[in-house]
User: Which sequence fits this backbone?
């Protein structure tokens, strides 16, 4: 993406702590979760195992040995959670469907109990005036498909297309927005390159093959959903964008490379029908891209109604000279998901950024969200956008009166909503904003150590408590005016 200079960013309070900003009529205020992070019921009603069931039960993979076996028990508490969403005034709820709950082995027979659960969820949302935004894939690949090769093999995209057909026929009369994939960058690079996410593989060539088959799966799924949905849903994909800063003499080159691997390798085939030639050249020592077949780019390049934008922080990169691929594999970090791709004798590395930070160690930079939205508008001016995830983890403490004051999260959200509003004022076609997350939940490799929710979950009793940030957000959702 082309960087946006500070001169193009709307001036307001320099710290982005505005108040009283009015969002336009029809702007969607929502919140989001993911199936493996909240549902639990990992082996009930016909659900098969996913790669995250396997990964989380592998010693040393997840903090404290935590798993999503119970998580927030949303599967059994769905009605109460729906009432909570209504209490918060949510206009939309972004949830994901567990593929192994629908098709336990990823292919073959459909599990009707899984269909019934999500049908009840969608009906419950509509009864409460909340728009259902359904994500087909938020990382919980059926383990049987991984055993057959996972996303690096083409057959997984074939299976994903069939899964999309099933869900379109089941829920496409009622779902407001279909999202095919959540953050394919994470699925490809963290799952198959860096290894910190399921399935935990360290194979650079496989990671790039996964990039392509995820892109292909998206395009085929959009076509399948359109063919089977009998309502009038919108179609979408959600990407986590890298908003880059560069340091050192090679800053521009470092930013170009990571922008290619992290951003353009998805946006260009999805929205332009092509892979960036510089990315293909940069990765020539890793793969020859022979997994891209005739017709693939046409299949990937499907019109979408909205592009989902996930943003949490910026990233700073630098270029190192004289680092060999062997040295890279011996512990150097960087590039996509911490796995550094060699380009001749150079290596791109992520470097520490100035704070303040969230509990995840991510820097707090609301200006990055404004910059990102403006950059996307500049590159894809006709493409509507939606902030599909933004939020922060902090170490919340329950007060003596049982309340959960979380001033840091509230401040984080206020500043990022200010950034979104400034982008709106500059003509960005931004349709809505989903706070991550509705509930404290299983935070992947961090287990239950990190809390992102605007609602606290006691993981012993599973009791829900709306945090101060949740009450603040409810006021915003109900009035459309940014509270102080």
Assistant:
């Amino acid at each position: 993406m082309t960087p946006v200079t500070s001169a193009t960013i709307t001036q307001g309070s320099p710290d982005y702590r505005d108040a009283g900003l009015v969002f336009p009529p029809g702007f969607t205020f929502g919140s989001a979760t993911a199936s493996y992070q909240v549902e639990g019921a990992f082996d009930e009603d016909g659900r098969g195992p996913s790669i995250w069931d396997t990964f989380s039960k592998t010693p040393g993979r997840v903090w404290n040995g935590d798993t999503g076996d119970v998580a927030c028990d949303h599967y059994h508490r769905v009605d109460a959670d729906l009432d909570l969403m209504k209490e918060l005034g949510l206009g939309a709820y972004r949830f994901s469907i567990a593929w192994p709950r629908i098709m336990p082995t990823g292919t073959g027979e459909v599990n009707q109990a899984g269909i019934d659960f999500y049908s009840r969820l969608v009906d419950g949302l509509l009864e409460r005036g909340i728009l259902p935004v359904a994500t087909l894939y938020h990382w919980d690949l059926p383990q049987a498909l991984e055993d057959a090769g996972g996303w690096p093999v083409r057959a997984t995209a074939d299976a994903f297309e069939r899964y999309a057909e099933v869900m379109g026929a089941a829920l496409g009369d009622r779902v407001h927005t279909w999202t095919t994939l959540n953050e394919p960058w994470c699925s490809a690079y963290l799952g198959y390159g860096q290894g910190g996410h399921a399935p935990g593989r360290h194979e650079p060539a496989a990671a790039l093959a996964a990039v392509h088959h995820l892109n292909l799966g998206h395009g085929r799924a959009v076509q399948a959903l359109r063919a089977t949905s009998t309502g009038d849903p919108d179609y979408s994909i959600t990407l986590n964008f890298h908003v880059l800063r560069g340091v050192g003499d090679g800053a521009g080159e470092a930013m170009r490379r990571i922008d290619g691997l992290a951003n353009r390798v998805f946006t260009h085939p999805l929205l332009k029908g092509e892979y960036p030639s510089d990315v293909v050249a940069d990765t020539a020592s890793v793969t020859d891209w022979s997994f891209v077949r005739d017709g693939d780019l046409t299949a990937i390049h499907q019109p979408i109604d909205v592009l989902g934008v996930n943003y949490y922080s910026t990233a700073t990169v630098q270029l190192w000279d004289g680092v060999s691929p062997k040295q890279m594999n011996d512990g150097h970090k960087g590039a996509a998901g911490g796995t550094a791709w060699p380009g001749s004798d150079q290596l791109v590395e992520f470097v520490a950024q100035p704070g303040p930070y969230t509990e995840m160690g991510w820097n707090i930079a609301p200006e990055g969200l404004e910059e990102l939205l403006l950059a996307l508008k500049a590159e894809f001016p006709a493409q509507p956008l939606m902030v599909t995830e933004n939020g922060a983890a902090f170490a919340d403490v329950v007060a003596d009166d049982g309340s959960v004051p979380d001033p840091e999260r509230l401040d984080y959200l206020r500043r990022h909503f200010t950034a979104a509003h400034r982008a709106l004022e500059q003509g960005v076609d931004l349709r809505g904003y989903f706070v991550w997350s509705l509930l404290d939940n299983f935070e992947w490799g961090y287990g239950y150590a990190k809390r992102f929710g605007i609602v606290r979950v006691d993981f012993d009793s599973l009791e829900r408590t709306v945090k101060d940030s949740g009450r603040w957000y409810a006021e915003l959702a109900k009035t459309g005016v940014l509270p102080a």
